[in-house]
Design goal:
binds flavin-adenine dinucleotide, globular, 254 residues, binds FE2/S2 (inorganic) cluster, Elongation Factor Tu (Ef-tu), domain 3, Rossmann fold, 7-stranded antiparallel beta sheet, Dihydroorotate dehydrogenase B (pyrk subunit), domain 3, alpha/beta
Length: 254
């Protein structure tokens, strides 16, 4: 893990939901795997005091991209930072998604700010299906952002304006009917309710998988105990033992 100053190369809105931040750092890009995250100090000084965690979205040599949604004060301040401004960033943190699935079909289920790490995973290791759920067409990523995905992309929107009408879990339920349970491996990242619905389906159908648990984080090194997840061996910090957990290791409702 390193903690370094970087300069913003690009920071702009790319659709009705996401902003993209780009910077360059050889050391922050070294040995990163999909599912890992970095911790970003949004402005110099102590207000806001806590750094904010973001998944690695895309790496090209030293170039690092993150994709983010403006949710509260920190991300609103981040959206106002300009090309050339400085940021302080530490990383990489956390455990990554499983990369080698043998002969199993890799089915990725993404929603909201869970899309970036799964796009990264599908670009680097390929997938059979990437299922993306959004509220409406305005939130669907531009095609150029998904051009590197090595797998079939299926969409669901709540209002039916793009792809299947309904939740992304409806896509998943339709898809898994086509394969024996033992041939499927699900990897999911997104809002808690979405991932819980995915886990409920997996438990009912006997499917294996992993979820990237999204807990508010502060230190990212297992010291503040602010991101605890209940597992069969007790409460563990999501920032060091996760954020990616096997379904069977998550013993709480997300
Ligand atoms: C491992 C990890 C990877 C992440 N990757 C991304 C990413 O790639 N892109 C992205 O846009 N966001 C990502 N997030 C979420 C991102 O960190 C939060 O959206 C951000 O910290 C919010 O900061 P803020 O100051 O804007 O909001 P705050 O003012 O801090 O919070 C606004 C509201 O959001 C809630 N909130 C804050 N953080 C979280 C969280 N982690 N989960 C659920 N609710 C939260 C708060 O309780 C509050 O209600 C990730 C989070 C984690 C833990
Ligand atoms: S963020 Fe501090 S223990 Fe995980």
């Amino acid at each position: 893990m390193v903690d370094l100053p970087v300069r913003i190369l690009e920071n702009k809105r790319i659709n009705g939901k996401y902003y993209k931040l780009v910077f360059r750092s050889k050391r922050l890009a070294a040995r990163v795997e999909p599912g890992q995250f970095l911790n970003l100090q949004i402005v110099p000084g102590t207000d806001p005091f806590l750094r904010r965690p973001f998944s690695y979205y895309r790496l090209e040599d030293e170039r690092i991209e993150i994709l983010y949604e403006v949710l509260g004060r920190g991300t609103a301040l981040l959206a106002a930072r300009a090309k050339g401004d400085g940021l302080r960033i530490s990383g990489p943190f956390g455990r990554a998604f499983k990369k080698n699935l043998g002969k199993k079909k890799r089915i990725l289920v993404a929603g909201g700010v869970g899309v970036p790490p799964l796009v990264f995973l599908s670009e680097r290791y390929g997938c059979d299906y990437l299922l993306i759920g959004t509220k409406s067409r305005e939130e669907v990523l531009p095609k150029r952002e998904l051009a590197g995905v090595r797998g079939k992309i299926l969409y669901a929107t709540n209002d039916g304006s793009y792809g299947l009408k309904g939740y992304v879990t409806k896509l998943l339920e339709n898809l898994i009917k086509n394969f024996p349970a033992k041939e499927i491996f699900i990897q999911t990242c997104g809002p808690g309710v979405m991932m819980q619905a995915v886990i409920d389906i997996a438990r009912r159908e006997g499917l294996e998988g992993e979820a990237s648990v999204d807990k508010p984080m502060a230190c990212a090194v297992g010291a503040c105990l602010g991101c605890m997840v209940k597992t069969p061996s007790g409460w563990v910090p999501s920032c060091t033992e996760g954020p990616v957990f096997k379904f069977q290791d998550i013993c709480e409702r997300l």
